[in-house]
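QUALITY CONTROL LOG
STEP: pairwise intake check
CHECKER ROLE: data steward
CRITERIA: each record must contain a sequence immediately followed by its structure tokens, with no blank fields

ENTRY 1 OF 2
RESULT FIELD BELOW
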Amino acid sequence: MDKGRLEAFSDGVIAIIITIMVLEMKVPQGTSATDLLPMFPIWMSYLLSFVYVGIYWNNHHHLLHTAGRVNGLIMWANLHLLFWLSLMPFATAWMGKNRLAPMPTALYGGVLLMAAIAYALLQAAIIRAQGSESVLARAVGRDGKGKWSPVVYAVGIGLAWVWPDVAQGLYVLVALMWIVPDLRIERALKAD
């Protein structure tokens, strides 16, 4: 399969995920600015999730540029990633509507953790198909951020039961680590 079809499909799914997230936000009753205040946690959850989906979209774009063609393993690994990302609207809405409740905060972290694992599996599938000397293998190297992110998510999930606000802070921290696009792949593509 040509990678263009996989990219187009993935872009469509990600666009739908963002659309569903914004549609989950309900218009408040009333017309004053104070009527918006109870929605603050919902907006913050949406903002964090929008940033996360954007990070995945951006890095997914770079990741697929290293693949010439895709095989069945890559397609399934990509679907695995999209599955976890598709749970973002639910996790976002539940966490936003329940402020700092432990279970929604832990579930949100669980979705982030599984998406990170799925992304690593997609990356590994592409490297397996392209070879250990491929552009992606050279670009990724030791992948410190990719290894630390799941650890921080797991700590956040554990802390969600005791200090949900600290857990959410850890989720924000990981997003800040990734907000700057990962340029390793771009540099490797230019050098190749």
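ENTRY 2 OF 2
RESULT FIELD BELOW
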Amino acid sequence: MTQVVSLSLYRFDGALARVWAFAMMGLARPAMARVPGIGFWKLCGSGTGEGFTPLPNLGVYAILCTWPDLATAQAAHATAPIFASYRAKASENWTLYMSANSVRGAWAGQTPFEASAAGTTGPLAALTRATIKPGILARFWHRVPNISRVIGQDPNVMFKIGIGEVPWLHQVTFSIWPDAARMANFARTGPHADAIRAVRDEGWFREELYARFTLLSDEGSWGGSSPLNRPEAP
């Protein structure tokens, strides 16, 4: 069997729904642990804008999970009460199902994703997760606006969001690209490349993980449609 990773995004409108979503960052944990078939999982908030800022966005939350296979993942999202509660409260939701094709590093002391031998010639997703050293927080977040501006203007990126478990200290970036070449071109040039050099030279992170994924399927919408159906740049 090939491990499947799901990333679910939920948008909440109105004060009561947002208070509920914020409270569930703590209250949802027992219910998540009881979902049949679930492996590694994390509840995450997001940043303002497209998520790549230190200011929290109280209207968007994410749940990332691993599953033994696609059927188990889809069945859990369809039937588990905790996912039904999130859908009922959210004004919009989108779930993406993926399989990892490369993984490097650790998250909370473990490697949560299992890389499969299968590759992809179509769109792919990239996820980075880092625990930032408290002493370099100011330098890290000083870099982020330039990276956010560049990725926001890049016509090749199909989707991007920044999420995290703990504001400021734990940062997850997630993006979808038409192919590996265009993703690599972004990573190797401009502010993003400068930040990568600073990470290596100055040791910004206590822990880091990098993963690439093959896209399997998705459910729901984000911004009125599936990001996978939006036109890509030529």
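INTAKE CHECK: passed for both entries
DESCRIPTIVE NOTE, ENTRY 2: The mean pLDDT is 83.
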